[in-house]
Amino acid sequence: MNIQLKISLLILFAGIMMVSCHPPAGSSHEVLISTSCGDIRIKLYDKTPKHSDNFLKLVKEGYFDSTLFHRVIEHFMIQGGDPDSKGAIPGIMLGNGGPAYTIAAEIVPEYIHKRGVLAAARESDDVNPLKASSGSQFYIVQGKVFADNGLDAVEVKVEKRTRQYILGSILHQPANSQQLKDFERCTQQRDSVGLQKLITQFTPEIAATYAKMTPFKLTAEQRRVYKTIGGAPHLDGAYTVFGEVIEGMDVVDKIAAVKTDSNDRPVVNIPMKIKVIR
Asked: Residue 255 in contact with residue 72, Cβ under 8 Å?
């Protein structure tokens, strides 16, 4: 799996990490993202100080200026922050760039993936089990409105993906090297019978590991938000949300609707410039 796919926004299981408040409540910073489609004003959250402080640092350095919104999926999100996107020629796949560091996850339960939130992209759990964030890449959720049956399906899908990642972790243990080779062979040959036999072999271990986790379950309030405001509930608990749009969601919608290529990159470049306004 290449880095672009790993840093994509995959559906992963929920993880909970409480963090302390810093700076003091009421001192939230705001930034303005200026684009060729208009301006987006964003408030950064206080309970995610590592992410908020890092974002402010990069903004003040001009790190994001002339970078692009390089990955856009309508009714889901718009993603940017890759320094390699500066001056990138049309058609080139982007999403691999960033500073030589990651940021420890600051997943706060109250910060869900409702429409308009700002969150950090990251590599997938197979190489990043602690959910550390990219040093610079971020996304803004456009999302969509869900009905209860859609939210039920999200819960089921997240549980299935969680079990798949547990299986992957088990197969990568040294003692299971032969089973990993068999799994890869069956996958390449589309041998569904062989795959099912391997999965069945590890089903008890998968179940035991899953039983120790907190199942992904949306609260009544979260369901209300996703049924009225909308968002991307399958990302909750898996990525750090560290801000939200307070003006300019119409601009987010405009960017999300542009024509894109097979890599979800806008056909016409959408550059940005970000400045601190408070």
From this structure: yes
- Give CA–CA dist 79/256, Å, rounded: 10
- Which class for 132: exposed (0-12), middle (13-18), buried (19 or more C-beta within 10 A)? middle
Q: What is the Cα–Cα distance from 91 to 71, expressed in whole angstroms?
A: 12
Would you write out the chain's pLDDT as a tens digit for each of its 278 residues?
Answer: 444 444 443 433 333 333 333 333 444 799 999 999 999 999 999 999 999 999 999 999 999 999 999 999 999 999 999 999 999 998 899 999 999 999 999 999 899 999 999 999 999 877 787 889 999 999 999 999 999 999 999 999 888 888 888 898 899 899 999 999 999 899 889 899 999 999 999 999 999 998 998 888 999 999 999 999 999 999 998 999 999 999 999 999 999 999 999 999 999 999 999 999 98
What's the rounded Cα separation, in Å, for the pair 137 and 122? 8
CATH class of 3-144+229-276: mainly beta
Question: Rounded CA gap, 148 and 207, in Å?
Answer: 27
- In the chain, where the domains are located: 3-144+229-276, 149-211
| 263 close to 42: Cβ distance less than 8 angstroms | no
Question: What amino acid occupies position 248?
Answer: G
- Backbone phi, then psi, for 183, in 5-degree steps? -65, -45
* pTM, to two decimals: 0.81
